[in-house]
Design brief:
Helix content: under 10%
Radius of gyration: 26 Å
Shape: globular
Number of strands: 34
Number of domains: 2
CATH architecture of the largest domain: 5 Propeller
Oligomer: single chain
CATH class of the largest domain: Mainly Beta
Structural class: mainly beta
C-alpha cells in the first residue's frame, strides 16, 4: 500500500510541477510602451506600398527590379569601389557593353568597349558575343568571351586593354595572334564552345573552364593556364556532365533535374569558388530560355577534379545552389506558384561587396516563365557558407533586402547574438544566415523557426551596444505558416516598433497560396539609437514560422 501511495504522490508532484511550468508567467511582457512614431522615427516598409512597390532608402536596401542592368550572362569585376558589369548585350550582342556602378542604385552604360568590327579579325560580321568576363592580371585587363567565327562556330578567345573600360583590342605577341585566330582554339576545333571563365588558386596557378557542345552531349571542361592567354592542353579534362554524379561515370544519370530540357542536355556557365579547402564547380543547367535554368554545383579536392555532385538516392535538387526548384511535370504545384516571381535565374558569377560575397546572375524579365528569354537582366543576392564550408544562397529575391556594409555602413549583427526564446522551436536558426526559399525540397521546413499558438518571444542579446539602422524579420516560406503582424520589436528604452506589418499585397499571392521566398518585415530607422538587445513578440491563433532576423548595426 505504501508503495502505491508513494507512486501516486510522486505523480501528483510531477503534474503540479509541470502545471506550474505551463502557467508560469512569461518574463517578457505582452505589451510595451513606445517613444517611436512611424513615419517620423522609423518607416515600416509595408505601409508604403502604393500598388507598384515599397518605398525604401536605397542607400540601405535594394530590390532586384530586373530593370537597371538589362543584360544576360553577367560578370562583375570590382576595382577601387567601382563595380563593372559585363555580359551578353541586350542592345547589340555583336559587341560588349559594360555597366558601371558604385552603389547599385545608379548605373552608367558604356557602349561597345570591345567591337570586333573595328579590327576585321576572325570573328564573323555577326559575331554574336556571349558571356564576357573581365579580369586584371599584372596591370593588364583581359576580357574573355565566346563569339562566332566565319563558319558559324562558337570559339573562345581573349582581348586586352589598359583600363577596365578599354577600348579592348585583339591580343598579338610573339606567342599568339588573337586577330586572325581565336586564342583558345587548339583542343576543340570541331565543336562549339562557350562560357569561358578563369580561376586563380591560392598558389597563383591559373585555370580555365568552359562548356563544350559535342554531337552526344554538352559538358564542362577545365585546363591549366601557363599565362592568361596560354593553355596547357596536356591538362585538359572533362569535369561535369549533366545528370551524372561525376565525369568518370557519365552513363548513369540520376540527377534528372539537370536534364529537364528535351534534346541535348545543357550544362554551361561554369564558375569556381574555393571554400574550406574544397573547390566548388558551380554551373547552369536546362537552357537559358527555360524557367528551370538553375545554378547547381559539384565539389572536388582539386581544381581539375574529379568533381562529385551531392546526391541522396531518391532525392531531388540535392545540388541546387540558386534557382527555381521545380519539376518538369506540367501540373506540379510549384509551376503555378513561382510563375510571376522568378524564371531563368542562372548564369552567375561571384563577387565581393566589401567582405560580403554576392552571387550575380541574370533572370527573365518576364517572370512568368513563358520562354521569352530574350529579355534578361542582372540581379544579385547573398552567398553564405555553412559550418562545413558548403556554399548556399539566399535567393533569388524580389523583395526589399539590406545592402552589404560596404555600401550602407551597416552590417548584420544578429549572427553574433545570444538567442533566448519562449514558445519557440528551433530558435537558434533565427540568426544562422539561412533563409528557406526552396520550400518544396525535402527537409526545408525543419530549417525554419516554429512559433506556437498564443504569445511567442525571441530575444537577441548582442555582445555590446550598437547603433541600430534597421531590422528585417524574414517570414516563413510556407503559405500555411504565414505571419502577417509582429506585436512589437523592442530594442529597449522605448525604442519599439509597434505592430509591424508584412507587405501582403506585395509578397503574397493568395490565389496560388504562395509567399515570395526571402520576403521580410522590413523597418528602417530615420533616427538611429543604440541598443544591446532586441525582443520580437508575436501572437498567433495558429502555428506560424519565421526564417531569420537581420539587425543592421554599426
Amino acid at each position: 500500500m505504501s508503495k502505491k501511495i508513494s507512486i501516486l504522490m510522486i505523480a501528483v508532484i510531477l503534474l503540479s510541477a509541470l502545471s506550474g511550468c505551463v502557467n508560469e508567467k512569461s518574463k517578457y511582457p505582452e505589451t510595451v510602451e513606445s517613444s517611436l512614431v512611424e513615419g517620423v522615427d522609423y518607416v515600416d516598409h509595408a505601409l508604403t506600398y502604393d500598388g507598384n512597390g515599397l518605398t525604401y532608402d536605397d542607400s540601405m536596401w535594394y530590390v532586384n527590379n530586373l530593370k537597371d542592368v538589362p543584360l544576360a550572362d553577367p560578370h562583375v569585376y570590382v576595382e577601387d569601389g567601382k563595380y563593372y558589369i559585363v555580359g551578353t548585350s541586350d542592345r547589340d550582342n555583336n559587341v560588349i557593353d559594360c555597366y558601371v556602378t558604385e552603389d547599385f542604385v545608379t548605373y552608367t552604360r558604356h557602349i561597345a568597349i570591345y567591337n570586333p568590327a573595328n579590327f576585321e579579325g576572325w570573328e564573323a560580321e555577326k559575331a554574336e558575343i556571349y558571356a564576357p568576363e573581365l579580369y586584371c592580371f599584372d596591370g593588364v585587363y583581359y576580357m574573355y568571351y565566346s563569339a562566332k567565327d566565319a563558319d558559324g562556330m562558337r570559339r573562345n578567345s581573349v582581348v586586352v586593354a589598359d583600363a577596365p573600360l578599354g577600348p579592348y583590342r585583339p591580343l598579338q605577341n610573339d606567342k599568339v595572334d588573337g586577330l586572325t585566330t581565336p586564342i583558345f582554339l587548339d583542343k576543340n576545333q570541331n565543336f562549339d564552345v562557350l562560357d569561358i571563365t578563369v580561376f586563380v588558386d591560392d598558389d597563383k596557378q591559373m585555370y580555365m573552364y568552359y562548356s563544350v557542345a559535342t554531337n552526344d552531349n554538352q559538358h564542362i571542361v577545365g585546363v591549366k593556364l601557363n599565362s592568361p592567354y596560354e593553355a596547357d592542353w596536356s591538362t585538359y579534362k572533362s569535369l561535369v556532365v549533366p545528370g551524372a554524379l561525376n565525369s568518370t561515370n557519365s552513363i548513369l544519370k540520376p540527377l534528372t533535374w539537370e536534364m529537364y530540357r528535351s534534346g541535348l542536355p545543357i550544362v554551361e556557365a561554369p564558375y569556381i569558388i574555393k571554400s574550406n579547402g574544397k573547390y566548388y564547380m558551380t554551373y547552369s543547367v536546362n537552357g537559358c530560355w527555360d524557367k528551370f535554368y538553375n545554378v547547381c554545383y559539384a565539389v572536388s579536392d582539386s581544381p581539375l577534379g574529379n568533381f562529385e555532385k551531392p546526391y541522396q538516392s531518391g532525392g531531388t535538387w540535392t545540388n541546387l545552389l540558386l534557382g527555381y526548384p521545380g519539376t518538369n511535370v506540367g501540373n506540379a504545384t510549384v509551376n503555378s506558384q513561382w510563375a510571376g516571381f522568378a524564371s531563368g535565374t542562372a548564369h552567375h558569377c561571384f563577387f565581393n561587396i566589401g567582405d560580403q560575397i554576392m552571387i550575380g546572375y541574370h533572370a527573365h524579365q518576364d517572370r512568368d516563365g513563358s520562354g521569352r528569354y530574350e529579355k534578361r537582366a542582372f540581379a544579385f543576392d547573398y552567398l553564405h557558407f555553412d559550418k562545413n564550408g558548403v556554399p548556399f544562397c539566399n535567393g533569388p529575391t524580389y523583395s526589399v533586402q539590406p545592402l552589404p556594409e560596404e555600401l550602407s555602413g551597416y552590417y548584420n549583427i544578429a549572427p553574433f547574438a545570444e538567442v533566448k526564446s519562449e514558445n519557440v522551436t528551433n530558435a537558434n536558426a533565427i540568426n544562422d544566415n539561412y533563409i528557406v526559399d526552396c520550400y518544396n525540397l525535402p527537409g526545408e521546413a525543419e530549417k525554419e523557426v516554429s512559433l506556437g499558438t498564443g504569445y511567442s518571444f525571441i530575444e537577441l542579446k548582442f555582445d555590446r551596444a550598437y547603433e541600430i539602422g534597421g531590422v528585417a524579420v524574414y517570414n516563413s516560406a510556407y503559405y500555411e505558416k504565414l505571419l502577417s503582424e509582429i506585436v512589437y520589436i523592442d530594442f529597449g528604452n522605448g525604442n519599439v516598433v509597434q505592430y509591424a506589418q508584412f507587405a501582403h499585397d506585395q509578397y503574397v499571392n493568395d490565389a496560388k497560396g504562395f509567399i515570395f521566398p526571402s520576403s521580410a518585415f522590413t523597418v528602417e530607422f530615420l533616427n538611429t539609437f543604440e541598443a544591446d538587445h532586441v525582443v520580437i513578440c508575436v501572437k498567433s491563433d495558429a502555428a506560424v514560422a519565421l526564417n531569420e532576423i537581420v539587425v543592421l548595426g554599426k
